Amino acid sequence: MKNYLILRVITKLLIPFILLFGLYVQMHGDYGPGGGFQAGVIFASAFILYAIVFDVRIARKVMPMWLLTILSCVGVLLYCGVGIATLIYGGNFLEYGVLSSIPSSGNHIGILIIEIGVGIAVAAVILLIFFSLAGRR
Amino acid sequence: MEILGQFNYWVSIALAMIGLYTVISKGHLIKKLIGLSIFQTSVFLLFITIGKVRGATAPIIDPNFSSYSSPLPHVLILTAIVVSVATLAVGIGLAILIKRTYGSIEDDEIESIDKAEEN
Amino acid sequence: MIFVFVTGCFAIWLKDLVASTIILGIYSLIMATIWVVLDAVDVAFTEAAVGAGVTTALLLFAIWLTGKSEKKVNRIQWGAILGVILTGSLLIYGTIGMPDFGDPSAPAQIHISPYYLQNSLAETKAPNAVTAVLASYRGFDTLGEVTVIFTAGIGVLALLSGFRKRRKREKGVIQE
Fold it and tell me: Which sequence spans correspond to the domains of chain C?
């Protein structure tokens, strides 16, 4: 893909917008369509586009495998951590109402943190799968 | 509406049958995976069809609307799609390993190699 | 709907795996528009990103690694066709008892969905009921899903990175 000038330029232009759109979908998930799962996949697809058009090796330097492994663990642990935090605050596991003095806004905070955890985990796992497939041969 | 009331279910069943036929009859493992993913989509179609209400809008609460489709099937399918890509990836990983070990991912060739090794 | 059916058939029928994968991507995109028509915007979002994007990329890489075309099989497998038609007709017989398309009084609409739709805004301050149910009411469920995805990622990593080490070890044994 080294020789296709148009593809390279358009990809370079598109990637920041894809990343921005992923963040928008992540943070806007409770008001419109979107959420952690979609945002994670969109975020990962930006890196996959980069890896396809340029080179997998360069993309792996930006996102090394050890970082991806750690990030996927961080995502799952963030989710569980919210559950543990609600236990410490005196509620049930994953009962977000206790995170704030008003139960409904506590629920909102809980949803936001959990969506972030889901987004990190999904993006990291999909990139992990993609790089371990693409790094073969 | 009475006659076509079950049209969506029929399409979903037809897709499921395409997927089932592929998984049974094709020998190529990647083709089997494609068939599996079509099978999964048919199940998604069934669930979303159950959740739809005629004349309703998407389940984003707004004072201008009063009738919404059921959000529960959407939640289940939303997570199921992402899980389906994860299982697909595990399948691809297994197929690549089989290709490395046997040199082929056709079902019958793998079986003949296995028999030759046993004898 | 008919487009979906036709593209699905083509994806199976074509012998060239690359063409088959591309058609599977088109199939997913048409499926995403159908989700929008059926009011499932979140699902449409996911399907467009996962089905048309990530799945196609993964399958293309798999084909690149395992070989491009399928072996020619001339005989049609009548046993498989018979079994499929039998199962399909039984399932269609089962749809006679199903509620009509878009029926507001169907069992799925009157059990727990009205509770979610009425109370989710007041209880979670999130207007999107799908997100509210996903993260709050069914939080355990979603935790399970995330764990499944995480396990799949670790599984692929174990499958594909263990092999290289094993091969290196075998080479080392031969050299010794």
Answer: 1-68, 127-176
Per-residue buried b or exposed e for A77-92, using 16+ beta carbons within 10 Å of the residue's own CB: ebbeebbebbeeeebe
Tokens of A58: 């360069």
- Taking the Cβ of residue C165 and every Cβ of chain A, the question of whether any pair is shorter than 8 Å is answered with no
Q: Which of residues 65-84 of B touch A (CB under 8 A)?
A: 78-79, 81-82
Compute the distance between CA of residue C165 and CA of residue C176 in angstroms, rounded to an integer: 17
Put simply, the chain C residues between 145 and 164 with a CB less than 8 A from any chain A CB are 146-147, 149-150, 152-154, 156-157, 160-161
Per-residue pLDDT band for A17 (boundaries 50, 70, 90) equals very high
Cα distance between residue A53 and residue A49, in whole Å: 6
Read off the pLDDT of residues B37-68 as tens digits, 9 standing for 90 and up.
Answer: 888 888 988 888 887 877 777 777 777 777 77
**C133 in contact with B, Cβ within 8 Å:** yes
Tokens found for residue C130: 């799908």
Question: ipTM score here?
Answer: 0.83
pLDDT in tens, A21-49: 888 888 887 777 777 888 888 888 888 88
- Cβ contact, residue pair C42, A34, below 8 Å: yes
Q: Name residues of chain C where pLDDT drops below 50.
A: 176
Alpha carbon distance, N-terminus to C-terminus of chain C: 63
Does domain B3-118 fall under CATH 1.10.287.3510? My reply is yes
* pLDDT tens column, B11-45: 888 888 888 888 888 778 888 888 888 888 889 88
Question: Are A94 and C140 contacting, i.e. CB atoms less than 8 angstroms apart?
Answer: yes
Tokens of C157: 């990593």
Would you state the structure tokens that stand for residue B42, as one six-digit string? 């048919």
Those of residues 79-118 in B touching chain C at CB distance below 8 A are 79, 81-90, 92-97, 99-100, 105-106
Size of interface A-B (CB pairs under 8 A): 24
Can you read off the two tokens belonging to residue A104? 């409904």
Please answer whether residues B47 and B77 qualify as being in contact, where contact means their C-beta atoms are separated by less than 8 angstroms: yes
